[in-house]
Structure formats: C-alpha cells, structure tokens
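ok so I'm stuck.
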Amino acid sequence: MTQKTRKIMPVSPDELNQLRQQIDGIDSQLVELLARRAEITAKVGQYKSQVGLPIYVPERETELIAKRRAEAEQQNVSPVLVEDLLRRIMRESYHTQNVDYLCTNPQIKKIVVIGGAGALGSIFVDMFKRSGYSVELLEQNDWPNADGILNDAGLVLVAVPIKLTESIISRLKNLPVDCVLVDITSTKQKPLAAMMAAHKGPVLGLHPMFGPDVSSMVKQVVVVCHGRHAQQYEWLLQQIRIWGAILQQTTAKEHDDAMVFIQVMRHFCSFVFGSHLASENPNLKQLISLSSPIYRLELAMVGRLFAQDPALYADIIFDNKDSVALLSEFSVKFNQALALVESNNKDEFIKQFFKIGSWFGDYSKQCLVDSKKLLLKANDDRSLSGDC
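replied:
not stuck anymore, here's the structure
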C-alpha cells in the first residue's frame, strides 16, 4: 500500500490521553536533564573564573553545535531545531557561569566610576566588584570630596550622560600619572580628545554597544578606541574579554562616522515612525493582532524606544556633528521615493530596488536567513493553545 492510499487509523480519546502522558513524561525528563546540565556548566564557570578563561569561547560553541547537528541528522531530527534549542540552552548556561571572575590586575588599589550609580555605570561597577576590585563611586554630590575619592585610583571610568562628559573630564587634571582614564560615552572623538588634554597618563575610549537591560556582557560588543599608552590598559581589555564581551577596535573618527548610521538614523527613524503612529492614532492592539511576525518585531523596535530615557536619545541624535547633514539627505531620498509612488512609476521603483539589492549583495541573503530565525521566535511568542 502506497503512502497516498494508506489510511491513518483514528486515535481514540483514551489513546490520545496516553500519548499526552508520554509527552509529559518526556518533557519532565528534559527538565531534569537541563537541571543536570546547569550544575555542570556552573562548575565550568567556576573553573573559568579560577584560571581567567573567557565566559564565551566562540570556537567551542561552534564545535558543539556542529556535532549536535550531525547527530540530529543521523536520527532524523531537524538540525535546525537542535541548533535553536542548543543556542537557547547555552545562553542560559552563560548566565549560570556569570558569577565571579579572575582579577587581571590585582595590583590596582582602587577603581573609581564617575556616574556609577547610573544605569550603565552600575553594570561596570558590578562587574568590577565581582572581579575582586575595590570600587568607589563619584556622584554629583561627591565632588567636594573628589580629591580624596580619586586619590590612589588605578582606573577612573567616566559613565555620565553625553552632555556632561567633556565638562566632567576637564575636572580630572590631578589624577595619578599611572591612572588609566576611560570613558564609555556613545561618541568618541570629543571625549577622547578631552581625556588626552586633561590627563598625561594612559587614556582609552570605550563604547559598550548595549543598554542597561542586558543580563550579562556575554557576546556583547564593546568598541575600543585607543588613546595613549595601550600597554598600561591591556589588563582592562583582557578583563572585559573574560567577562565575555567581544572587542571591536577602530579609530574615534571611524566610530563616530559609523554611529551616525548605527544609532542616529535608526533612533531618529523610530522616533518619526512612532510620532506618525501617535498622530494618526490607529488601534494599537488591532495592529498587533493583525500583524505578521516581521511587523510585530518592527513595531517592537519602535515601541521599545519610547520606554527608555528620552534625554539619552536626544543626546545621541543632537550631539553628533553629522546628524543634520545625514538626516537631511535621508529626507531627500524619502521624498524621491514618495515621488515614485505619487507618479505610479513602478518600473523605476523596481529598477532602484535591484540596484539597492546589488549594494547589499550576499548580505541580504544572510539577512533573510537570520530574520527567519527571529520570526520563528516572534511567532512562538504569540500564545496559542495546542498540543506539541
């Protein structure tokens, strides 16, 4: 009997109940296995902490996933499913390993974080403390005692809003000569120049490419812009690697030029999109319920902007010297595209579509693959009852 003519025998309610009980039993076993795995990964984290190994090792992760995908194929299990499960499990395991860290420079007497009580500064305060450093905070009301707080500091980290960064740096002219002066502002040329002028010792510019809502630094990007005496702050870069972050090195100018596209344009477009939605006042719940996963993701990226500090995004957009020129050019491109729609010029639209696609090249194909993974996760989050 061929597959087309084979009849599927109906399952009785009792048999269905038994099958569901089997699924429940297997799921319980999975939970037990995950608990056992978490115990082991916690021990791995303890070992890494003792010897100073990074939490995130890309080669190990790649090798593990490749092996499990091969095993899945041998057992007629979807390798994509296995990879998705493993990546989610590994993300959780990184958090179980995220306890204490090896101190790469125990000779440092003290680290001072200016603005350490803030959202992003507090992350670094926590990471430094968990790495065994003595940390002090310097906040707005502490400046009368600043000399005492900064005395004997081996590292001073400036973690204040963009608009305050340069003025704060200008007050740091009496730091110990071997103290490392670092800022974590989202612009780099002006803060780096201000640090070089205020301090004769080692200077470093960092830009953490994440917000204060991250649960750890594992796989997070930190941009590195070198200033002066790199050998004297190599211990700090190694410390950040141990925390699991990925360091990307560039010049301050290259960084600021890139941030116009990465931050300014993205946040500004989200602002305008959100502004237009608010003025048109559609039924937001209906938009969400009727939308595809990709639109819900796009809407989520817009909506999350307005759940955060408006002053932060105002500083990012307004304080970049190239913002006006680039956004003005974007406005021109928008109006040109609108003119194509107004004139019903589909042929020119398609022509430009292909031209833009050619600029993206193979990356657009990779985007299609990557976005499919995100869309599957977004679709899973739309709660619907059913058996698995």
